[in-house]
Hints:
The structure is a homodimer.
Chain A: H1 18-26, E1 32-36, E2 40-46, E3 54-61, E4 75-96, E5 103-110, H2 113-117, E6 134-139, E7 144-147, E8 152-163, E9 168-181, H3 196-212, E10 227-228, H4 229-240, H5 246-258, E11 269-271, E12 277-278, H6 284-301, H7 304-323, H8 350-371, H9 373-394, E13 395-396, E14 401-402, H10 412-420, H11 426-439, H12 448-460, H13 464-480, H14 516-522
Amino acid sequence: MSEQAKIQTSQAVIVPNETFLQTADQLKPVIHRKETFPTQIVEVSANVNAIHGWGVAPVGGVESLTQRIFGKGESMILDFGDHRVGHLSFDVKPIGSPPDAPLKMKVTFGEMPVEMAEPFDQYEGWISSSWLQEELLLIDVLPQRIELPRRYSFRYVKFEVLDTSPKYRVSFDHIMCTTVTSANAEAVTPLGHSDPVLECIDRVSIRTLEDCMQDVFEDGPKRDRRLWLGDLRLQALANYVTFKNMDLVKRCLYLFAGVPDQQGRVTANLFIEPSIIADDTYLYDYSLFFTATLYDYYEATNDRITLNELWPTARRQVELALERLDQNGIVRDDDTWWSFIDWHEQLNKQAPSQGVLIYTMKRAFQLANEVDSEYASILAGRIREVEALTVHALWDPKLRFFISGAERQVSWASQVWMVLAEVLPAEEGRALLMRLLEECPSVGMTTPYMYHHFVEALLIVGCKEEAVAQIKAYWGGMVADGAVTFWELYDPDNKNFSPYGSNLINSYCHAWSCTPTYLIRRYGL
Amino acid sequence: MSEQAKIQTSQAVIVPNETFLQTADQLKPVIHRKETFPTQIVEVSANVNAIHGWGVAPVGGVESLTQRIFGKGESMILDFGDHRVGHLSFDVKPIGSPPDAPLKMKVTFGEMPVEMAEPFDQYEGWISSSWLQEELLLIDVLPQRIELPRRYSFRYVKFEVLDTSPKYRVSFDHIMCTTVTSANAEAVTPLGHSDPVLECIDRVSIRTLEDCMQDVFEDGPKRDRRLWLGDLRLQALANYVTFKNMDLVKRCLYLFAGVPDQQGRVTANLFIEPSIIADDTYLYDYSLFFTATLYDYYEATNDRITLNELWPTARRQVELALERLDQNGIVRDDDTWWSFIDWHEQLNKQAPSQGVLIYTMKRAFQLANEVDSEYASILAGRIREVEALTVHALWDPKLRFFISGAERQVSWASQVWMVLAEVLPAEEGRALLMRLLEECPSVGMTTPYMYHHFVEALLIVGCKEEAVAQIKAYWGGMVADGAVTFWELYDPDNKNFSPYGSNLINSYCHAWSCTPTYLIRRYGL
Lengths: 525, 525
């Protein structure tokens, strides 16, 4: 998820459901640990052809590590060869006279070369610099094994010796990262795809998901390390076809259901430490995704006990969303709401949110058929009604696109969500998407999260070839640009794009970007 | 001690005496802990009349602490009201929305206001910046109690919030320092002096000693936190009249005797962690002080077992020192030796070192009389001989001063050490010191360590009044300039003096400066 939403605050009063929270607590996952090691010593230097303008070149093997001796102002960059989430530890020993002053050093972690190259103290982005991953170490006693207590997310790590004394220098050895994840790699069935590009994209997707699976499904292990509903829904879908950790999805659903506000509304995200706290951010689409995620979970597990327990929460999200419709049956677009949809400043959220609503109502209807037949019949009528009003109010027959908001904005997001909501017959949805590709309206897509929905929309109207082409162009583009996990943000036309004002702060292992494995495996691409 | 000596390195081979090291290990002191708290919130601002140009003014009581809320870029300075050596801990809690980014903050410790006012990153002194006391903290989970593992030496502590997020700020509470020392304050007899200035100087001396008494006698708790023989000798003297921790002196003597080089020479200083290591610095005067310190210890304790065990080490230092005399009976002054004496770039070390030798020979003679009558008779002859040669070679009858080195330098240090060595009859020594005060040769004294020896020289020739005047002017000057513990360096005529190129790095609680309590109590001032 994004920071934009976080500026919103509300006066919600939380009414905890202790039974749900206890259930969630009992589902705390086992954390798998693995020792991983750097694969080479590298240098990062300016390269206009490389992502963010920084290229990486090997300068030595790790077997030469103990021969390298570092004095004041000297540094090295280690490449772990792949993305790692975990705890760094290393030996540091003095070379020369006994150390007559502490060792002062800095350790900087980077998912990308840019984090090794551009100094953090020049960061002027608008979200907190506290996300930039670094440690200042003052080490009084040498030799010593250093075990950094914080969890870091990185591929590269820079060791900088800021000061020793004229009498000694230092060397490093046994550098390792003990990775942590609640994903069990052995549960994954190899894809064995004949197309090496899709095979590679599948692998990078799975690694992205793996590194985001911790005590809960996190959005990104570098930033924000938080359980967001929009990310959870996509992670759960990718998880069902890979790690199959059903209990982790169940845990997250119970957590969200455990801290509703006084209206029964589910928050957009949760803080897990020091205790479960519902963030004071509520998003129209994200609350509805509780229901959609429960639907997907039930489809994957047939876990009727959980469905029975969580159904009232799922139903409540739909009821609350329906309360926001105006007399024309369209979600009110004013200053009193927030909906996420995509990271796009100009995007009007009305029509895509209307799409999310209908999409969710149809899934709620199917769940209601299982456990709440009375509400099922209510919903059946409401779905017909809202769909009709939606086409009436938001479909522009001249433009042949759905419009959104007072300015009648034509965006990609609106068309995509109307197709996902199956507001039009499949053939018309397909034509709409083809027209979208042809006419390319200017309010486009900015996140892998939105690209996922576009590709899935293509797939449900049968445009498999176009879907594969989109996956290869977009996620394949990240791989070509060096991704070992998929990124929070990627704009092929503006690779320096950051909604935060700096490439340093973007997350380069981000849950909402992990879905190609789901798309490939679920739709047999 | 100083850094100058540390640049020296030697190829000494250490021959450990495991029995001695075991004895030292069994004498590890009990560490006394006490919870101490800040007394006020202050600000530090430019003030030409204050030491180093920085004045301190209160801006609030600590009872207002929890009302103070800190966002990005905000800071406060706490005054603990006295010097503290120990571990800082505090509560930090978020104010506002749940923290959606880590807290990034810096904690800076200062013995003096200058350390709160001048940024450490502009430090350009020539000893390691790693001594500057700071911590960069990245705190993932809030609220939290933070317990900094390192031991710090300070009166002031600055809390700077470097970043939070737009959604929250923080407040601090229950800030405390758990002080550590091996000194037992209850063992000190109150002085109850009629002169409030001497009473105050005695108290500040004792606090200085207390804060330097840790696992061993350290030179300074901020820097270098090391066991130096020159400091140990003075600390032991002050300890005998205050805390009376005889075992700590004994432990330190066994430590030095436990790691001689292959010649039997005692190092100038020891590293204690991770294990006992003899530094590769050997100083002519400091090695001799092993013998002088054993003499003082025996005088204070009458501990004959220790004397018997350590006598061979003590005797060996004298033998090695005598080997350095040339055919004229004067210590050879060339590039193959180091002697400390004082922190003065122009000072020639020959004559003062000769004084240290004779001073020590006389004490070794008395010890030998107890345990080694054969060497006692050898020494008796050598003392007479060396004294005569010294006067012959180094006394300039025209100048009526002792001269030192090829340039025939007249320094304060040379006169002081010749008086302490009692090379001249008391009356002549007294006249020499009076002449010194009158003529003020330009190669003066720069450290409290040297001032101590000057004052003690005055006292042994009966100049009590002048001694008190010196103590009041010098140590009293530090008190007037705000000292709550005595400083490593103090030049009343140049209060910004630092041999390291920056006031930031000086130590402001330094063992060799703690002796006024000894001088006052021992000589009944």
